[in-house]
Design goal:
Strand content of chain B: over 45%
Largest sheet of chain B: 7 strands, mixed
Order of helices and strands of chain A: EEEEEEEEEEE
Distance between the termini of chain B: 38 Å
Low-confidence stretches of chain B: none
Distance between the termini of chain A: 37 Å
Shape of chain A: globular
Helix content of chain B: under 10%
Number of strands of chain B: 11
Number of helices of chain B: 0
Oligomer: heterodimer
Largest sheet of chain A: 6 strands, mixed
Helix content of chain A: under 10%
């Protein structure tokens, strides 16, 4: 079993839709949770970063962490064609700065 | 914001040769940098943690003699793929940061022919 599980997609939605992306994990020591966006052949770009459980909102993006269920989500409101990319969840333990990534979900927003 | 520059972006080399990839933090000092590897349609896998002024820490299964890491200054880490083989062809990405929200370089696509 992988430490972090993420549905690879592809996920195709119409422009303006609300997108929900999810990851589950097995390591209860994970405390830091991130979402990255990666365009083809580019390095990942940090979108959201949260510590422990709770919600965090930034513009059209909302990140949720439920540590009791070992489940994290990223919601994208009013999705745009420019949001089409691969979204990677990533996590780390306190004191260990390297990240463990999910496999990424490929999102396509149709105009 | 933090900027990490990685060079080259693409490299093609012959089997048996060595390739050096550079990772620079442009506007901050990084005592620690990370090297990841990504195969097509797969996630990033941590290869090693690069520590300024000391030896790198390699993940299990990563050959330290094949993937040489040097972190000689607070702004530069290099990854050298020695005696490259076609199976080393991959996307190599470095990252650095001052907290847990790390910045990634743009990646290096290595093709060994």
């Amino acid at each position: 079993q992988k430490e972090v599980e993420q549905d690879p997609g592809p996920l195709s939605v119409p422009e303006g839709a609300i997108v929900s992306l999810n990851c589950t994990y097995s390591n209860s020591a994970f405390q830091y949770f991130m979402w990255y966006r990666q365009y083809s052949r580019k390095g990942p770009e940090l979108l959201m970063y949260t510590y422990s459980s709770g919600n965090k909102e930034d513009g059209r993006f909302t990140a949720q962490v439920d540590k009791s269920s070992k489940y994290i989500s990223l919601f994208i409101r009013d999705s745009q064609p420019s949001d089409s990319a691969t979204y990677l969840c990533a996590m780390s333990e306190v004191g260990r700065r390297a990240l463990t990534f999910g496999s990424g979900t490929r999102l396509q927003v149709q105009p | 914001g933090a900027v990490v520059s990685q060079h080259p972006s693409r490299v093609i080399c012959k089997s048996g040769t060595s390739v050096k990839i550079e990772c620079r933090s442009l506007d901050f000092q990084a005592t620690t940098m990370f090297w990841y590897r990504q195969f097509p349609k797969q996630s990033l896998m941590l290869m090693a943690t690069s520590n300024e002024g000391s030896k790198a820490t390699y993940e299990q299964g990563v050959e330290k003699d094949k993937f040489l890491i040097n972190h000689a200054s607070l702004t530069l880490s290099t990854l050298t793929v020695t005696s490259a083989h076609p199976e080393d062809s991959s996307f190599y990405i470095c990252s650095a940061g001052q907290n847990y929200g790390y910045t990634f370089g743009s990646g290096t696509r290595l093709t060994v022919v």
